[in-house]
Structures are given as structure tokens and as C-alpha cells.
Design goal:
54 residues
Length: 54
Amino acid sequence: MEYSVFIQLLGNFGFPIAVTLFLLVKLEKKLEQLELAIHALSKAFSKQEGKEDK
């Protein structure tokens, strides 16, 4: 999201809405990274369980 768009939102809709949208955009990237990490951990855990069963 460009900062000019952020400033325009601030003028049109007010501070709370603009901050909420800005944070949602930032958090979305972090949540995607967290999801990938959880999937990788799950796969690693499954592989480890398979080794212990043998």
C-alpha cells in the first residue's frame, strides 16, 4: 500500500479506519509467513514420528 493512498484514506475516512487498514495489510504478510512456518513444522514433526515408529 502506498503512503499517498494512506494519507488520502486518513483525510476521507478518519484516523481509526486508516490505521486499521494499514495494520491489516502489514499483519497479512506476517500471518502468511506464520502459516508457512506451521506447515513446515507439521511436516518435520510427521517425518520425525515416522522415524521413531521404525
